[in-house]
Design a protein that fits this description.
Number of helices: 11
Strand content: 15-25%
Radius of gyration: 25 Å
Largest sheet: 8 strands, antiparallel, barrel
Helix content: 25-40%
Distance between the termini: 33 Å
Strand order of the largest sheet: 1-2-3-4-5-6-7-8
Structural class: alpha+beta
């Protein structure tokens, strides 16, 4: 779920270019690859270091090499490494430091080419199931869709789950900070007799369409196209199709399940169960608290946010919300103390920067759809078995309120809900449980959640 917070991040992807003749040594610390280019055994006294995820590329480091060890440093960037070779000198075991990484134990392995980020839960080929990359044309949307179908081997009958990603434009693997959320999920399910289809979002990978102009309702249309496609495949068992959505994907799963007779079961992972206005309130409050702002700042920030949210809600969809936001923000600020505004990062003209960015976001069709979302329009129409899951440390879709709303509105007679202790929005066991920490945790998907999902799906399949 995307929030109108005052913290906006620009994420860039940077690629290293290397010469074919250079030796590559590569290690990893959480979401950061440490890449060294050069020959440690040559007479050269320097090498090149890159950390692509931090946008550092080919930084010169000075080398001190001995028979069984190697050290390098760059005092300007505060890079340093001290390590020792293994017996055949194909790996270096040591400690790496930089301005942003402290005392990281890493292993630099000799590679023939730069490797992608890897985590212990990342599936390794060959797979014990069939993986098929495919494209298909949507009959109603007219869009071309790209996706990956995973089919269990040696089974003629199996449940088939469409995986639906959360807010933002994602490729089919639902990758965040190098972690392939849906690849891990699809692998786990396929090994337990459950087929999956995961798709590229509009405008990325092999799927066409304009993502920026699309709403959650449009994404629900994409899922309907996927269902129709699966039903048309003669060699695929599409008799038991279910939906599994994460975050906004849970909302999409709810919309489709309420409308389609082809959906046999629904799984919501941190899905939205409350109204759009309530979701914005819950989400922003939880995230502000995670930054350890004072109660006074959080209260005032939420006071302002809720005034702005209501202004957006009351604006007609075909009108720009900026004029109303300008009036509301000016009125609110005129009643506030300067020191408080400074704490909120709204003093000295910074309010205009905030207003520009929020108004730009709030004028999107996607945002208008979300803020007007009403679970009462969809959840009471869902009668298929439903599994509703959340982590109790989720600050993007707070668990208690959203799960309670699902319980209130869903009319299915087969409802299972569970809130997992210690899990964040991405189903990782967390410590600080902030948004920043997500990329510092090597876990991709908590094993107990994967187990519960697969067990529940197979239980529904046996019933069906």
């Amino acid at each position: 779920m995307k929030i109108p917070d005052f913290l906006y991040l620009v994420i860039a992807v940077f690629f290293c270019q290397i010469g074919l003749s250079q030796t590559i040594w590569q290690g990893q610390f959480h979401s950061n690859r440490i890449i060294i280019l050069g020959d440690f055994t040559s007479k050269n006294d320097s090498l090149q270091l890159s950390i692509p995820e931090l946008l550092y590329n080919n930084i010169k480091v000075n080398v001190l090499s001995k028979e069984d060890s190697l050290c390098f440093e760059n005092k300007v960037y505060r890079y340093s490494f001290k390590g020792k070779y293994n017996k055949d000198k194909t790996a270096l075991f040591g400690v790496f430091n930089s301005s942003s990484i402290s005392n990281a134990n890493i292993v630099l392995k000799k590679q023939s080419e730069i490797q992608p980020l890897y985590f212990s839960q990342s599936p390794v080929k060959p797979y014990p199931y069939q993986e098929i990359d495919m494209t298909f044309l949507g009959k109603k949307t007219g869009l071309l869709y790209g996706g990956t179908l995973c089919i269990p081997q040696k089974l003629k009958k199996y449940p088939l789950v469409i995986l639906i990603s959360g807010t933002g434009q994602h490729e089919r693997n639902y990758t965040y900070s190098g972690r392939e959320f849906f690849t891990v999920l699809a692998d786990y399910l396929a090994r337990r007799g459950i087929a999956t289809l995961r798709l590229d979002d509009r405008g990325i990978g092999k799927t066409t369409g304009d993502f920026e102009k699309a709403t959650t309702g449009d994404f629900a249309d994409d899922v309907n196209e996927a269902i129709s496609f699966l039903k048309s495949l003669p060699n695929i068992d599409s008799s038991t199709i279910g939906l599994l959505g994460h975050s906004e994907g849970g909302m999409i799963a709810s919309i489709v399940s309420a409308r389609s007779k082809e959906v046999k079961f629904m799984i919501s992972l941190s899905g939205v169960g409350v109204s759009g206005l309530e979701m914005l309130n819950l989400q922003n409050r939880a995230i502000l608290k995670s930054y350890n702002f004072s109660d006074e700042v959080v209260a005032k920030q939420m006071e302002l946010y809720n005034i702005l949210f209501k202004a957006v809600y009351d604006t007609k969809n075909d009108e720009s919300v900026r004029p109303a936001l300008e009036i509301k923000l000016k009125e609110w600020m005129s009643k506030q103390d300067y020191l408080l505004l400074k704490k909120m990062q709204l003093a000295d003209g910074r309010d205009q920067s905030f207003l520009y960015r929020y108004a730009k976001d709030a004028d999107r069709n996607w945002y208008r759809f979300h803020i007007h979302y009403n679970p009462a329009d969809y959840l009471p129409k869902i009668t298929v078995p439903a599994l509703i899951l959340n982590g109790d440390k989720d600050i993007q879709v707070p668990a208690a309120e959203n799960v309670a709303s699902f319980k209130k509105f869903l009319k299915t007679k087969d409802l299972t809900t569970k809130i997992y202790p210690g899990l964040n929005h991405m189903y990782q066991h967390c410590n600080t449980c902030t948004q920043k920490e997500v990329k510092e945790l090597d876990e991709i998907f908590a094993i107990e959640v994967l187990e519960d999902i697969s067990t529940w799906i197979n239980k529904q399949f046996k019933k069906h």
